[in-house]
Amino acid sequence: MQQSYESTGAADAGGPPHVLVVDDDPTVAEVVAGYLLRAGCTVDRAGDGPSALARAHTHRPDLVVLDLMLPGMDGLEVCRRMRERHPVPVIMLTARGDEDDRILGLERGADDYVTKPFSPRELVLRVESVLRRTRPDPAPDPVRLGRLALDPAARLATRDGTPLSLTLREFDLLAFFLRHPGRAYSREELMREVWGWEFGDLSTVTVHIRRLRAKIEDDPAAPRAIRTVWGVGYRFEAEETGEETDEVDGTGGSGPGEAGPGATGPGATGPGMTGPRETGARRPGMTGPGRTGPGEGDGGADRHA
């Protein structure tokens, strides 16, 4: 069934949003909780996975700020178990420098991530951005294109009448594509339009494209709806067009038309990858969410798309 984020906590009844902060570092938890309280949220705290699951069960939060590195049960497992009980938006905190860990968090369903050390004010902005997207537009219009239909008010997406199980960001990404078919968008444009970020790690977009393809395409390796436009980004088309895809995923995908091992060419990014690499938005010398530091940038996206 479609994961709906409406009815998860106090904010749905007109009260302040309820945020659960899960971090085993009491200093970090206290600082984050203080900033969220000043932003008008109610805050609950937990220092480990089991207590976080218990608190989420007794008082369902509108959003969870979840540390990846927790004693006993890591944040990925906590996220998985929370999602088994009920859908809830998750912003993951990670001190790990390996991009693979951040990608894994997104693939497990996290809606956003923030890398430590981080600015508490920026975290609050990310929280507010995710919470805004958990509520339907005041007067949204349903949209249908080909085999896909989407009702923003109900937060329901279907394919051939069958409900799709989409995360918050996957739903927003599909809604954007359905309203703007036929035009190619770069990952930078999708990050601005769907995530509302001017700066960010573009692999976030790449991972969500791959996850969405897995849920709406007959064959995600040969996508017919979300097409890769070589050297640009992605274009959405109704599936009934019947066109064959012959595009090369410049972000390192594995769809048809892409070269096999040993491929060469300008901008080749590794075995079986061809085409120029897309460039992520950067701020020199800065690290953290939306700020590309060592080990981040388009290279990680190339490995994972």
Q: Approximately what portion of the residues adopt beta-strand conformation?
A: 15-25%
Provide the low-confidence segments as ranges: 1-9, 241-305
In percent, how helical is the residue content? 25-40%
Count of runs of 4 or more consecutive helical residues: 9
What report would you give on this structure?
The protein has 305 residues and is of the alpha/beta class. Helix content is 32%, strand content 15%. The chain contains 9 helices and 12 strands. The protein has helices at 26-38, 49-58, 75-85, 99-107, 120-133, 168-179, 187-195, 203-216, 298-304; strands at residues 18-22, 42-46, 63-67, 90-94, 112-115, 143-145, 148-151, 156-159, 162-163, 184-185, 226-229, 233-236. Strand 7 and strand 8 (156-159) form a beta hairpin. The longest helix is centred in the middle third of the chain and has 14 residues, at 120-133. The protein starts with 17 loop residues before the first strand and ends with a helix.
Summarize the structure.
With 305 residues, the protein is of the alpha/beta class. It has helices at residues 26-38, 49-58, 75-85, 99-107, 120-133, 168-179, 187-195, 203-216, 298-304; strands spanning 18-22, 42-46, 63-67, 90-94, 112-115, 143-145, 148-151, 156-159, 162-163, 184-185, 226-229, 233-236. The strands form 3 sheets. A 5-stranded parallel β-sheet has the order 2-1-3-4-5, sandwiched between helices. Strands 6-7-8-9 form a 4-stranded antiparallel β-sheet, with helices on one face.
